Amino acid sequence: MRSVRVLSHPLKSACEHALKSNLALKSNETVLIVTDAEKRRFGRAFQEAALQLTQQVDLIEIPIPAFNGEEPPDSAAAKMLSADVILMPLAKSLSWTRARREATQTGARIASMPQITEDIILRTFPIDYEPIKCRVNKLDDLFDAATKVKVITKLGTNLEFSVSGRKGRGRNGGIYQNRGAWGNLPCGEAFIAPLEGSANGVYFVDASHAGVGEIFQPIEITVKNGCAVDIRGGREATILSNMLTAVDDPNAFNIAEFGIGCNDKAKIIGITLEDEKVLGTCHVALGKNVLFGGKIDVGVHVDGVIKSPTIYFDNQKIVAEGELLI
Fold first, then answer.
1. How far apart are CA 205 and CA 303, in angstroms?
2. DSSP per-residue letters across 132-183
3. Tens digit of pLDDT for each residue in 57-94?
4. Pick from 43, 26, 23, 21: which is nearest to 34 by CA?
5. For the chain, which domains are there?
6. In this predicted model, what pLDDT tens digit does every residue of 194-224 receive, in sequence order?
7. What pTM does this model have?
8. Phi, psi of 104 (to 5 degrees)
């Protein structure tokens, strides 16, 4: 396939670094790039970088999904089943879709990059992910052994939930070199699906929220028996509430995920893709969790990022006002 010229040489170089270091792309492998009109430039940057390593590169453009977790067109899902490496620079996330899961099951190595920007690529791609992976795996070991998690912040967050019987996720830590390995780029989060119905309390999202963007007035979310029952704040809260209501399924309000950021190179910029990876943050997601150990299957998954949390696993303090103690 003929390459498409990308003006920014550093952008192409950073994409090539990710293909070599994070995905270990080989010359005999096939690459599929799934992009959309909003992120087309980055799809082409990956296309040009991939063509330096293999000649089997295909780029397809899909309509921008209405929300994170919406399934891609059937034609795109079918192509995903036959690629060795799949890159997804998109406006919305395909991470928690059947299409991604089925491609993973065929052995594809996948990097999901919703809301990716040039700034994110240049800052977080050409780095060493091994220390980040180490932090993730230490936290996941603690997740595996824990039964209860408590999160508090100075802003007023006081949320508890059970993780009994659930396993920590994210152990690839941004390194997707084995068959079926997948995750975000940038990466660096240890996460888990809280036990359905167990979460109670309140949490304040003050960094960013998927589907909303940067938070200027914190979103206060009250949780009862595993579901968000009240969403308050300013404009951001209204956008989130309306988005979840539009799904027309009460499971959209399910407390789906809890994650802890482990990437010391990531920064809070108002984009969830990077914000939720920042060392010193945590995040709570609403909606679908069936693809990572939970039971809820609904067409939405949106994360809200919280700054400087204090986090307990059972009676052990793991994070103190954003400082990782392990």
1. 9
2. HHHHHHHHHHHHHH-SEEEEE-TTS-EEEEE-TT---B-TTTT---STT-EE
3. 999 999 998 888 889 999 999 999 999 999 999 999 99
4. 43
5. 9-124 (3.40.1830.10), 130-324 (no CATH)
6. 999 999 999 999 999 999 999 999 999 999 9
7. 0.89
8. -60, -40
